[in-house]
Amino acid sequence: MDTVEILRTLVAFDTTSCRSNLDLIRWVAAYLGDHGIAARLVGSDDGAKANLLATVGPDVAGGIVLSGHTDVVPVDGQSWNSDPFTLVEREGRFHGRGAADMKGFIAACLAAVPRWRRLSLRRPVHLALSYDEEVGCFGVPRLIAELRAHVQTPALALIGEPTEMRIGLAHRGFYGHRIIFRGRPAHSGDPALGNSAIEPAAMLVAELARLARALSLRGNRTTFNVGRILGGTAINIVPGCCEVLWEFRPPDEASAVVVKAEVERLLAVVPPGVYVEMTQIAGVPALAASADGTVAATARSLGARWPPREIPFGTEAGFFEQAGIPAVVCGPGAIAQAHQPNEWVAASELGAADRLLAEVGTWAAR
Ligand SMILES: [Zn+2]
After folding, report:
1. Measured in angstroms, how far is the CA atom of residue 178 from the centroid of ligand 1?
2. How far is CA 220 from CA 171, 262, 277, 291, in A?
3. Residues of the chain whose pLDDT is less than 70?
4. Is the Cβ–Cβ distance between 93 and 346 less than 8 Å?
5. Ion ligand 1: residues, CB < 5 A
6. What residues have CB less than 8 Å from 250, skipping those under 6 apart?
7. Directed axis angle between helix 253-267 and helix 198-217, to 10°?
């Protein structure tokens, strides 16, 4: 099967994040099995979804991980000119949900498997397909845990998010939190009988704004947003509960550590009688790879377009980096088409991905 045929098959599986991706994963496992490659499935807690890990080539260190997420964003409320789950070609563009983000890349990887099998690879090529990327990168941590447990350390990971085949070495992280303040409600005729949950919440929000300004003055590009506050019940009741949803986006993981420590310190000094609980509800590490490093050079030699560009969206790359596997982002299609109605990937982009993956085989056989 060529890349377009496989893409047609992958698009036909409705793997919107709220649904199971198992039909797609099982199809990929069967396809790999037909080519003599065993796939390891790593399921979600409820068993409704799975990651897939497979290796072509020898069981040695120094291989390359090709990483893609199998889920897609919803088509609800979007106006499409054709069925989103049927790949349609119009004027050199292949339309369908996930065509750019990022089933085109996965299709190109799968189409390259028979070629890699014919070469006598000296370094392995690992396929790592995840679930639930679009809703907060919830699948990839256990995929990486499986990789670390069963695969000798790879030299690099290439995340095929749509960059029009340009190399991406950096993007900001994303950390989302829910903080719940619990005080004691009372009649506001005598506020001393209660403990306001809104006051410490408001102070925290002001402190976050102050922290943002302080970091900015030091030249740090971390941004903050308090997206929602929900607290209290009535004008004449001391509020017993207040919930704050907030996020920050650090340019690197060192900045994330600074922010987390600062917020922990702020939460440690709430007034007596108020209890506070913070939960991280999303955590996508930043990617900050070096343009001078060997991994960037390797990706460039494989055909990733130069010069690097900062990526305006989060990816799974930072998770690989945190696990000690240097990662870069490079894949077919444009982020401008991702998540849009009539999402498309250009035939020329799929061709460029095919060439890069052929080079991956040459690199691995060297
Ligand atoms: Zn994506």
Report:
1. 25
2. 14, 15, 27, 20
3. none
4. yes
5. 101-102, 161
6. 172, 173, 175, 222, 256, 259, 286
7. 150
Query: Looking up tokens 């070629």, which residue turns up?
Result: 115
Specify the residue for token string 């995929």.
Answer: 143
Residue 161 CA, ligand 1 centroid: distance in Å: 5
Rounded (to 5) percent helix, strand, coil in the chain: 35, 25, 40
Q: What confidence score (pLDDT) does residue 153 get? A: 97
> What pLDDT is recorded for position 5?
98
Alpha-carbon distance of 265 to 263, in angstroms, equals 5
| Ligand 1 midpoint to CA 257 (Å) | 26
Q: Which two tokens stand for residue 254?
A: 């060192």
pLDDT score for 290: 87
Contact yes or no for 160/345 (Cβ under 8 A): no
Q: Are 231 and 242 in contact (CB under 8 A)?
A: yes
**Residue 102 per-residue DSSP state:** I
The predicted pLDDT at position 246 comes to 97
- Separation between Cα atoms, residue 120 and residue 148, nearest integer Å: 24
- Distance between Cα 316 and ligand 1 center (Å): 9
Find the 39 Cα to ligand 1 centroid distance in Å: 22
pTM of the model: 0.91
The Å distance, Cα 30 to ligand 1 centre, comes to: 24
State how far the alpha carbon of 197 is from the alpha carbons of 149, 206, 221, 236, in Å: 45, 15, 31, 14
Q: What value, to the nearest 5°, has the Cα angle with vertex 113 and ends 107 and 119?
A: 150
Distance 69 CA to ligand 1 centre (A): 7
Can you tell me the distance from the alpha carbon of 73 to that of 68, in angstroms, rounded to the nearest whole number? 14
Q: Locate all alpha helices (DSSP H) within the chain, ordered by sequence.
A: 3-12, 22-34, 104-118, 140-150, 198-217, 253-267, 294-302, 317-322, 347-365
pLDDT at position 310: 83
CA–centroid distance, residue 148 to ligand 1 (Å): 23
Which position has the token pair 């979007």?
78
Q: How far apart are CA 108 and CA 302, in angstroms?
A: 14
